[in-house]
Design a protein that fits this description.
about 120 residues, mainly alpha, 2 helices
Length: about 120
């Protein structure tokens, strides 16, 4: 049987330590990179969610303002909405929503006009 010399054993031991160190280093780098990618992905998701929520809140605010304008009994929006919803027989019912806006020096004023 051949007995390895101490120098060969030391070289083999150092090679084994070097291989293990390279493996552990590769594992640590891979793990760190994966965590960094995952954190960046999560940050992107959070940013997208925040942007979406901001847009939703702005849309809700605009809808609320429009609804408030329509629900004001003496607003032009309410009057026009009533006229759009009324049949030919029921347009007279919308007079109660007609805004009171006197126009000076105009006896021919027919009242407010709905857009469109």
């Amino acid at each position: 049987m051949i007995t390895p010399s101490p120098r060969t054993l030391i070289i083999a031991g150092l090679a084994l330590v070097l291989i293990l160190s390279a493996g552990i280093g590769t594992w640590l780098i891979t793990r760190t990179t994966d965590k960094a990618v995952e954190q960046a992905h999560s940050a992107g998701q959070i940013e997208a969610i925040a942007t979406g929520q901001k847009t939703t809140l702005e849309q809700i605010g605009a809808a609320h303002a429009a609804e408030t304008a329509i629900r004001d009994d003496r607003s032009l929006a309410r009057y026009c909405e009533c006229l759009r919803s009324a049949t030919a027989d029921t347009t007279g019912n919308c007079v109660r929503y007609r805004p009171i806006q006197p126009v000076p020096d105009r006896s021919d004023d027919t009242g407010p006009h709905c857009p469109g």
